[in-house]
Amino acid sequence: MAQAEIKSPIPGTFYRKPAPDAANFVDDGGAVEVGQQIGLIEVMKTFIPVMADVAGTNIVFTVDNEEPVMAGQAIAEVTV
After folding, report:
1. Rounded to two decimals, what is the model's pTM?
2. Residue 63 belongs to a domain with what CATH number?
3. Which residues in the chain belong to E strands, given as ranges?
4. Which domain holds residue 41?
């Protein structure tokens, strides 16, 4: 099976959940569909949704919650 990366569209701070006390958008090991939100990136108090551009299973996040990311950096890997 092939692996695909979901990459950050912009630089900022990556969040795996919509609020500190909320559940993750997607948990490690879960499945994702094209267009499904997997996180948020915050830039200057603006939150940009991060959407999966591939469908697959067994998602593994390569970035921790609240970790800075660069544009084009892999956020997660998915088995396609």
Report:
1. 0.91
2. 2.40.50.100
3. 3-7, 12-15, 37-43, 46-51, 57-61, 67-69, 74-79
4. 3-79
